[in-house]
Amino acid sequence: MKSFFTYSVFFIFFLSLSQNMSPETLLDKAIAYHDPNGNWKTFNETFTVEMTTPKSTKRTSSISINLPAEYFSVSATKDTVSTTYTLNKGKCTMRYNGKAIKPSAAKQKNMTCDRATLYKDYYSYLYGLPMKLKDTGTNLSNNVEKKSFKDKDYLVLKVTYDEAVGSDVWYFYFNPKTYAMEIYQFFKTDDNGKEKQDSGEYILLSEETLLNGIKIPKIRAWYYNKDDKYLGTDTLVEK
């Protein structure tokens, strides 16, 4: 009886949180948890990520992001092949197995400067969350949702983007006690902007490490929304 009473009190409290808190307030609380000193704007770190996927060998990536210097670099090694993409104030350079490679030769190895930009945007976005949700072109929903995922309750932000930024619909799941970001999920949209429920993926975040004084999820496990099929795991390797 006591446990039921405790759960009921928490549920009522949890429901009132989602009803009374604005999306902007929830985002601010989440950012205060992950980046309490506002360090993201001056982020300057090099870190290593290991990617493991079923039936494939491990890929190890060394990633450098220096936002004030407008510098990004990722060097990935898988089996006996290594590739490096660097953007320095917008100037693109590439290396293959440690040697500089010209764009014409790089294209034959499926390496392009467009891919370099894609990697920069990808890593800056994922490792800059939830702070990146303050970026121009990001649109928060009108209310905070309450959802359960894997038998755990969350406060959820629905996020869409201006057409120039992206067409996917994202959901960010925050711990209702600490406001830590623990899951994110995205869906593709059809020509009318409606979510395609059999599309997209969800990403489970676990553990944390500090980079530049920011609490960064250490482990990201990726799954399809459609059938919960496991895709792979990115693990931030601490030195």
How would you explain this protein's 3D organization?
- This protein is α+β, with helices and mostly antiparallel strands and 239 residues long.
- The chain folds into 2 domains: 19-41 and 137-239, no CATH class; 44-127, no CATH class.
- The chain is 21% helix and 43% strand.
- It is built from 4 helices and 14 strands.
- The protein has helices at residues 2-20, 23-34, 103-108, 113-126, and strands at 44-52, 59-66, 71-78, 81-88, 91-96, 99-100, 138-140, 145-149, 152-161, 169-174, 181-187, 201-211, 214-224, 230-237.
- Strands 1, 2, 3, 4, 5, 6, 7, 8, 9, 10, 11, 12, 13 and 14 form a 14-stranded antiparallel sheet that branches.
- The chain is globular.
- The chain starts with a helix and ends with a strand.
Keywords:
Aspartyl-tRNA synthetase; 14-stranded antiparallel β-sheet; globular; 2 domains; signal; alpha+beta; DUF6503; 239 residues
Topology:
Layout: H1 2-20, H2 23-34, E1 44-52, E2 59-66, E3 71-78, E4 81-88, E5 91-96, E6 99-100, H3 103-108, H4 113-126, E7 138-140, E8 145-149, E9 152-161, E10 169-174, E11 181-187, E12 201-211, E13 214-224, E14 230-237
Antiparallel strand pairs: 1-2, 1-14, 2-3, 3-4, 4-5, 5-6, 7-9, 8-9, 9-10, 10-11, 11-12, 12-13, 13-14
Compact overview of the structure:
The protein has four helices and 14 strands. With 239 residues, the chain is of the alpha+beta class. A hairpin with a 4-residue loop joins strand 2 and strand 3.
User: What's the helix-strand series?
Assistant: HHEEEEEEHHEEEEEEEE
| Sequence stretches where pLDDT stays below 50 over 5 or more residues | none
Structural class: alpha+beta
Percent of residues in helices: 10-25%
How would the global form be characterised? globular
**End-to-end distance:** 48 Å
Number of alpha- plus pi-helical segments: 4
Q: What about the largest sheet?
A: 14 strands, antiparallel
Keywords: Signal
Protein name: Aspartyl-tRNA synthetase
Pfam families: DUF6503
Organism: Winogradskyella arenosi
